[in-house]
Amino acid sequence: MKWIKRLSITAVVFGLFLLLSFIKVSTFTITSDGHVEDFHLYDEKQEFRIRWKHSVEKEEWEEMFELSEGSISLTGTRFKTFGAGVPSDTGDETYIKDGWVYMMGIDQNIGKILRIRTGKDTDHRVYYGKDSILPLEEKQAYQLSVRQQSMLSAIRDYIFVETRGEHR
């Protein structure tokens, strides 16, 4: 009788794993060298920012993004000083506030993947929502992406990020 009970438990567990591997969820992940650095369930209209120190200007720059319709859109940027190649205005509204030049209402669709490369002394950070800050390692390539993945894979990524102790 014990073997029937064990077989039933095994069948339930196997069925649960099978089910979780077929259910798809949308996620927003930050990866580097194939490793998940940060993980979030996709949240329509969620904003995030990438902030860094410009390698030439040595001033903070920040770009604002939004998750929208299953992809990433650039919505605005702000910086302290103009540099080579920076347009005098972009988007719907350009203004100066608290020493920052803001260019808002850009609404440029990036797609499902945004790739960035950090520099030696750029101090890149990703701010997701109000509470999550992810400092990025110097001289690394990162991929920020919106994707569909199985619920089982999403649970694995979530557990990996949370148990690493680096997620803030």
Relevant terms:
seven-stranded antiparallel beta sheet; 168 residues; four-stranded antiparallel beta sheet; 2 helices
Topology:
Layout: H1 2-22, E1 24-32, E2 35-41, E3 47-53, E4 60-68, E5 71-79, E6 93-97, E7 100-111, E8 113-117, E9 125-128, E10 132-135, E11 141-150, H2 151-164
Antiparallel strand pairs: 1-2, 1-11, 3-4, 3-9, 4-5, 5-7, 6-7, 8-11, 9-10
Describe the 3D structure:
The protein is of the alpha+beta class and 168 residues long. It is built from two helices and eleven strands, in the order αβββββββββββα. The longest helix has 21 residues, at 2-22. The model has no long low-confidence stretch (mean pLDDT 88).
Low-confidence stretches: none
Largest sheet: 7 strands, antiparallel
| Structural class assignment | alpha+beta
Lateral arrangement of strands in the main beta sheet: 6-7-5-4-3-9-10
Beta percentage is over 45%
Number of strands: 11
Outline type: elongated
What is the CA–CA distance across the termini?
48 Å
- The whole-number mean of residue pLDDT values reads 88
Note the quaternary state here: single chain
Short description:
The chain is α+β, with helices and mostly antiparallel strands and 168 residues long. It has helices spanning 2-22, 151-164; strands at 24-32, 35-41, 47-53, 60-68, 71-79, 93-97, 100-111, 113-117, 125-128, 132-135, 141-150. 21% of the residues lie in helices and 48% in strands.
